[in-house]
Amino acid sequence: MKSKLVAFFLLLTSSAYGITLEKAIETALKKNNLILAKRYELKEKESNLKISKLHLLPTIDLYSEYNKTTDPPYAIMNRMEVHDLNMVSTNFNDPGKSQLFKTGVRATVPIWFGGKLRINTDLKKKEVEATKKQLKKDIEKVIFDVVNAYYNLLTAKAFVETAQLAVKDAEKRLKDAEVTYRSGLGLKSDYLRAKVYLKEMEENLVKAKSNYEIAKRALNLAIGLPISHQIEVNEDLTFKNFQFNLSDLIKTALRNRPELKELRVKLSQAKDMERLARSDFSPRIGAFGDYFIASDKAPWNKENSSWVFGVQASLNIFDGGIKFEKLRKSRISQLKIKEYIEKAKKGIEFEVSKAYFRFQEAKKRVELAEEAIKEAQESLRIVEKRYKNGLATISELLDTQTALNQARSNYVAALSAYRRAVAEIYYAEGILKNRYFDLAN
């Protein structure tokens, strides 16, 4: 019986050429659509930051204008622009038609807007930081999904192998029943019952193979590969000992979880929004300059040139209380985000605790499942011997065989749950990207 247990473990740990967990995750980090989209979003935010910095620089515009008028004020100004106004002969009430071609360069320079431009730059910079935290969160989620899909595939593969063992054992039971029946020592009904049992095991094998194919496609989806891409796993479910301390896990999670870091960035943004609201109480100061050439005969013809330079300042003294309400809103936003941070801390502590106790449970299940296989194999050995001696029925033998099959399946499920529990702990800590290689066999 010991040799059968060893054979089962060897079957679970046999290797075939294919993709490893590390390779699957590396590929996902390059090809997963969610990660690619978030990286493009990060580039958008970085472009917004560059644009906000460029707003601190002067703006320079080249312009060209044309007008034709009989309106006295504009007609007189057009003539003044080209030094063609005769104060004696001009009828100021009816100066007649006039036209003007004007081409120039105009510049504006922001000097002081209450710090608004630099605060906007700070906000854009923090948007970039927040998006980086979101990207890290999405990377952690994608890796977690890949790990789960990978272990789903390993589990499906192991179930195929256990189903193949069950078919092999059922064929042996059928052969024993046939020998007993042909020799006149057994009943035909026992022989037929063994045949039905074999068909049931073959049906289970068909289901296991179908689930294996589905699991392969689910892994392709998690990685970001075409669904029909041919993929095989290079590893099998094995036990690897892990030890964790709940208190240390919680501390690590509160220090590393990207969503908590993102909320802290948002709190900093809310403080910047308060600074932005305060800037509305400050004056706005800017400089401007203009140089142009003018002609009343043809475009870009220089009959006269002029320039102007000036400084403009403004201060809003009443807007119905909008400035005060914006300031109040920014302070309320900070209080709101602080509450979200506290809620996130509690949620993270709960998630880590849940992952830890799931891990403890899964680890114990592996131990129990391994013991159950040994006991089921010993039970089958005894009943098999009794059956050959005519002391047990075929139903007892097949029931005992079914118990062994179930024990094998339970062991596979326990191993799968154990590996997932380890991954969930790393995910709950926010360090799965840096520790997923620990999950490799």
TrEMBL record:
Subcellular localization: Cell outer membrane
Gene3D superfamilies: Outer membrane efflux proteins (OEP)
Highest taxon in the source lineage: Bacteria
Stretches of the chain forming a coiled coil according to its record: 160-218, 359-386
Keywords noted in UniProt: Cell outer membrane, Coiled coil, Membrane, Signal, Transmembrane, Transmembrane beta strand, Transport
Pfam families, sorted: OEP
Region forming the signal peptide: 1-18
GO CC aspect terms: cell outer membrane; efflux pump complex
Keyword DNA repair: no
MF GO annotations: efflux transmembrane transporter activity; porin activity
Predominant cellular place of this UniProt entry's protein: membrane
The keyword Coiled coil belongs to this UniProt entry's keyword annotation: yes
Entry similarity comment: Belongs to the outer membrane factor (OMF) (TC 1.B.17) family.
Protein name: Outer membrane efflux protein
Species whose genome carries this gene: Desulfurobacterium thermolithotrophum (strain DSM 11699 / BSA)
Lineage summary: Bacteria, Pseudomonadati, Aquificota, Aquificia, Desulfurobacteriales
